[in-house]
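Holo prediction — iron/sulfur cluster.
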Amino acid sequence: MPPSLDPELRRALAERVRYCHELGIYDFYRREPRIPQPAETESAALEIISASLSSTSYSVSQSELREEMSARKSAVVAVVDKNDILEVVNPKPEYGVADPVAALKLIREDLGDCTRCKLHKQGRKQIVFGVGNPRAELMFVGEGPGADEDTQGEPFVGRAGQLLNNMIRAMGLRREDVYIANVVKCRPPGNRTPEPDECETCSPFLMRQIAVIKPKVVVALGATAAKNLLAMNSSLGELRGRFYDFKPAGVRSSDPSWPGARLAVTYHPAYLLRDPRQKGETWKDLQMVMKYLGIEPPKKTAE
Ligand code: SF4
């Protein structure tokens, strides 16, 4: 089992990824840590300097360079590993596919009969990929499938799903207008919270779904979704009540002009079933989203 990242390191990495995205850098690859040996460092640096000088018509011998280098022996010199230069980054199959329906299909095919994390062998009936409008302006992200979702293959179809449907209707929308997915796509046994390694393994597929759908707003339902999407470890109470700028980590959108989504955090409907007192606070979060999207709540009709 791969070790999970320290939350501070995870947050720092997420910030670096976001920063790279702002610079238009989307593809990353992992380089194994490598400590250069002093002799190797020196000769590699000499090679690099020598090559650059020869391309500018200077004539300097290796021994002259070695003399020059000896004065700076303590300096750190980066060694370029030729194998790293030649490493090829595989693009995702949906890259360059403008039609979100086709792109989502490619992501689903890539997921296949997934066995990437241990949830595949802990009693799941099927993978619950996601459902809704592939061009949705609003996307809801929950934690993981429960028993009903596992049976039906669709997220949020049990009691919590009925409540989410009511929330969507209260916003003046229909379930078919939005897109609904989870951080993990297989049911955790006994409805336990998905573990960090399961979220880390599965969430790249969610990120790819978001990059294809390009919603204006993502609503994270509950702490697990919020912490995974934002790579932050604060409590739900601290995270909700404001918007965050969000771009799915580690993936490229089919539309380079997509500025990313705004992300809001609110309570998970399953939590609201246990503690209905938080429904008012949830409604405030949804009203914030409606205001941003320019949605008027439906007029109440006289009974
Ligand atoms: Fe694969 Fe996600 Fe299911 Fe794990 S939870 S087996 S990563 S689809």
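READOUT: The longest helix spans residues 196-213.
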